[in-house]
Design brief:
alpha/beta; Rossmann fold; ProC C-terminal domain-like fold; 2 domains; 8 strands
């Protein structure tokens, strides 16, 4: 499969680099087009991918076209994709606010569209990717696209109506987690630890906790209870966080991301 990336900014670039980290992927099967031509040239030299000067050229050469541009650019790029589109190709969108139905308006009946909601952990092959499709994408074709995103972390098929929820729970949530790691590290610094070392301690603790959830199958609430010995240090910290609205704040942040996502939907 020939994969084309239109836009290689934070998200598109993270997916591309994570994808190329898979030893089974041949860089010569990858095509890239970006408004920053110098960035594309550097990628050609360092990553071995193929640069394309136009979206039309990339579309003609690709089996899967991944649109990684900002939502307000879609009305500009979709006609260019449509000019070279054939029904054997699949369009993948990762933009918030761009529904499958909006993309379909630019094409004839039969256009194959997959919508994803990833996060930037794709760069280290630890992404969480939600994937949905329109009715024109058959099971075999969908599996090819699905494998692409399973190569950069975990992927789950969802209904499109859950995309807003996904943005809150995994699309935007790395930012909340970085805030948590930084706050832990800052507290450690105030207690005498060097910042660089504090970040390692905090980040590894977060990664280990996440793996415990994913690999043991134990409910996170039970995992918390398991480490909260009566009268111990952990339960003291947990009770303080609860008293200060820790869980409430997280839920409010989640909901703010979801509500904003709904407002961004293009008609």
């Amino acid at each position: 499969m020939k994969i084309g990336f239109i836009g290689v900014g934070n998200m598109g670039g993270s997916i591309l680099k994570g994808y190329l980290g898979n030893e089974q992927i041949n860089p010569k099967d990858i095509y890239v087009c970006d408004s920053d031509e110098e960035k594309v040239r550097q990628m050609e030299e360092t990553l071995g991918i193929n640069g394309c000067s136009t979206i039309e050229d990339l579309t003609a050469k690709s089996d899967i076209i991944i649109a990684g541009v900002k939502p307000n650019s879609f009305e500009l790029i979709l006609p260019k994709i449509a000019s070279e589109y054939t029904e054997k190709k699949i369009i993948v969108s990762m933009a918030a606010g761009i529904d499958i139905s909006y993309i379909e308006k630019f094409f004839d009946d039969g256009v194959k569209v997959v919508r994803i909601m990833p996060n930037t952990a794709a760069m280290v092959n630890e992404a969480m990717v939600a994937v949905c499709r329109n009715n024109n994408v058959g099971d075999i074709e969908f599996e090819e696209v699905f494998k692409l995103f399973k190569a950069i972390g975990l992927a789950e098929e969802i209904s499109e109506e859950l995309i807003h929820c996904v943005i809150g729970v995994s699309g935007s949530s790395p930012a909340y987690t970085y805030m948590y790691i930084d706050a832990l590290a800052e507290a450690a610094v105030e207690n005498g630890m060097a910042k660089e070392q504090a970040i390692i301690f905090a980040a590894q603790a977060v990664m280990g906790a996440a793996k415990m959830v994913l690999e043991t199958g134990i409910n996170p609430v039970q995992l918390r209870i398991n480490v909260c010995s009566p009268g111990g240090t952990t339960i003291e910290a947990v009770n303080t966080l609860k008293a200060n609205g820790f869980e409430k704040n997280i839920k409010e942040g989640f909901q703010a991301a979801v509500d904003k996502s709904k407002l961004m939907v293009k008609k």
